[in-house]
Amino acid sequence: MKAETYGLRGKGVSLISIVLICTTIIIWSWEKTPSLNVSIPSRATMQLPSENISIVSHKEAKTEAKRNEKDKTSKREHRPDFVNDSPQRSSLISEKEDNNWNNATDNKVCNYAKGKWVPDNHRSFYSGFGCKRWLSKMWACRLTQRTDFAYEKLRWQPKDCQMEEFEKSKFLRRMQHKTLALIGDSLSRQQFQSLMCMLTSGKKTHDVEDVGKKYGLARGKGALRPNGWAYHFLSTNTTILFYWSATLCDVEPIDASNPGSDQAMHLDRPPVFLRQYLHKFDVLVLNTGHHWNRVKFKANRWVMRVGGMPNTDKKLGTMGSAKNLTIHSIVSWVNSQLPKHPGLKVFFRSISPRHFVGGEWNTGGSCDNTTPMSVGKEILWEESTDQVAAHAVKGTGIKLLDITALSHLRDEGHISRFSISAKPGVHDCLHWCLPGIPDTWNEILFAQI
């Protein structure tokens, strides 16, 4: 009897197991067969959307992957390469910052040269009364007899995109373990002094040391000032330097033993300083323009050379042609060096405009406006108004730092008659008051690196 009982129980258990297995198979079939959706119990019906979502997500993932790959390609083509090449990109560039590189419509790179000047009463990178360590007195208009300072309260607003807000700590982190060099004329020197003031807020700091000697930047015998400056920020291992090269070409005495010798000006040869220290630079900003005139050539005893020989090409006899040759030569040479220095990012800054009215600096020219011509005006054209610089960098790895048109609207920002170094009645309508327009040049530079 016990054996029969166990047998019946065993058959019952087997029957129940078979029923459960069959039920499981049927439910599984319902779940996997779309045509049976109508008769699937409510619980099974709730599971189907999750399967559909999974299928859609898989397709979306493929589409998103393709889109991301396309975006990456687009960013490689359109973004400034400095971000992509920076080994500290992930820690220095946030996602919000990353988007600022490409805010323009239709995925176009922001054209910072297009836009308008807008009022900004909170604008103050540094005080015009301070920054005495970096800022030359002749450019600190707050220290002169000038009484109107509305020019300090305007901000450049690009059209169709947002320009990344300048922050000194962010700039230094982005330039950590890097060197930025500005090479050019006195307008480049103004940009250098502006940047130093912006990075220190014009205040004294023990974080900055003079490293000019490392680059051979020292005041020569009888010189009013050294041929450049270099400063090192200890906290981020960042170096900012300026080197004076008014024409961006190599200049050397024809007779080195004669102090009064004419100076050979090699139009097709880059300055020795640039050739010697290029490998140390991570960001390079070049400019030239306002020294290409007969007065400067005569005063400096510059004599043109091409191919190491005296110039015999009459076409280069004009200042414009000689300048064009030099700009194209320096851009071409630097571009040829980029493969040797893959981390180097180079900008050629377009020319800073003059605003002399009624003559030149030595013939009664003036610039007395206190209300900027920028009121109600907007820069809308795509091409730079400095066609020489724009054509020179086209098709190269050098970027144009285009500041010409936006600076042209700011005729009230010049030192004007308040220069402390000029003769009475002589106006400076070339250089800018600081704080002032060159601060905006550095904002745009920051946004591009």
TrEMBL record:
One of its GO terms (cellular component) is membrane. Residues 57-82 have a biased composition (Basic and acidic residues). It comes from the Eukaryota. Its main location: membrane. Residues 165-447 form the Trichome birefringence-like C-terminal domain. It is found in: Membrane. The keyword Iron does not apply. Residues 57-99 are annotated as: Disordered. It is a single-pass membrane protein. Pfam families: PC-Esterase (PF13839), PMR5N (PF14416). Residues 109-162 form the Trichome birefringence-like N-terminal domain. Keywords: Membrane, Signal-anchor, Transmembrane, Transmembrane helix. The keyword Transport does not apply. The chain crosses the membrane at residues 12-30. GO terms for molecular function: O-acetyltransferase activity. InterPro entries: TBL, TBL_C, TBL_N. Belongs to the PC-esterase family. TBL subfamily. This is Uncharacterized protein. It comes from Lupinus angustifolius.
